[in-house]
Amino acid sequence: MENIVRFDSVSEYNAYCNTDTRHPLVSVIDLSKSDKKITIRLNFGFYTIFLKDVKCGNLRYGCNYYDYQEGTLVFLAPGQVMGIENNGNLYQPQGYALVFHPDLIRGTALGRHIDTYSFFSYEVHEALHLSENERKIIIDCFQKINQELEQPIDKHSKKLIVNTIELFLNYCVRFYDRQFITRDTAHKGILERFETVLNDYFQSDKPQTLGLPSVGYCAEQLFLSANYFGDLIKKETGKSAQEYIQSKVINTAKERMFDRHKSVSEIAYELGFKYPQHFSRSFKQHVGQSPNEYRIHNN
């Protein structure tokens, strides 16, 4: 059984990394100061962001490995487990970690919308790959937080630190937007493959067994996390993945309305609706006509 080390507090992780605790709820850690470690899994009770500087072991999430190279950022929400592997050999970590406890941002604007930073739920092959200029901006944010941590804690400390963390996260949103465009090879044909997944779904018996297709199901078929997939589709189409699926459902319904041998209820069940009235309500909301009205006016 793998050894899992759990850190509930920032100070515990600071001690593990040979770093002084200057604030109980936030820290910027120079990983090169950490002792050499072997294969281990870490469970963090706080937000953790790794910036990797050089090749030094692999990061594992679940059964898979992060697309984790030099100059990349990986984001972990509280409760997530990260594996560090280097074939059982000793290695010297290089890079930085920004860690902050949920209590730091509780009651702040960042605390109220931290969930909108969906990259904290990204999975394998979805790390943020930084350009040299982007890396300098990230390091600058880390340095600003460090400089504030070196000052005595006063009534301004929390606001200044939280605002800098929010600035850092907003830069990461911008850099991910850039990555969705520049990593064209990794994302090539995502819409076509998404469309294929939906077509195959409606041509199978899955609607009857699983119901309407979900964002999670489609993301899984494309080997992406639901959040990363949703953000990618939003950047590509301007629609959320759920809106795209709903549009596909309605367009498929329109096509099947031309088959007079099938009742509206049969079509509803074929598409994965549990109740025909839910289908009729959704159809009218999107089309402006009930299924029967649409059928009368288009036959």
Structure description:
This protein is of the alpha+beta class and 299 residues long. Helix 4 packs antiparallel against helix 5, helix 9 (215-221) crosses helix 10 and helix 12 crosses helix 13 (276-287). The protein has a five-stranded mixed sheet with strand order 1-3-8-5-6. A five-stranded antiparallel sheet has the order 2-9-4-7-10. The protein folds into two domains: 4-185, Jelly Rolls, CATH 2.60.120; 189-297, Homeodomain-like (Arc Repressor Mutant, subunit A). It is built from 14 helices and ten strands. 48% of the residues lie in helices and 15% in strands. InterPro entries: Homeodomain-like_sf, HTH_AraC, Tscrpt_reg_AraC-type_HTH. Keywords: DNA-binding, Transcription, Transcription regulation. Residues 192-297 form the HTH araC/xylS-type domain.
CATH topology of the largest domain: Jelly Rolls
User: If strands are numbered along the chain, what order do they take across the biggest sheet?
Assistant: 1-3-8-5-6
Name of the CATH superfamily of the largest domain: Regulatory protein AraC
Give the SSE string: EHEEEEEEEEHHEHHHHHHHHHHH
Average pLDDT reading: 84
Number of domains: 2
Number of strands: 10
The percent range for helix content is 40-55%
**Rg for CA atoms:** 24 Å
Strand content: 5-15%
Q: What are the low-pLDDT stretches, counting only 5+ consecutive residues below 50?
A: 54-70
Backbone shape: elongated
CATH class of the largest domain: Mainly Beta
- Ends distance: 64 Å
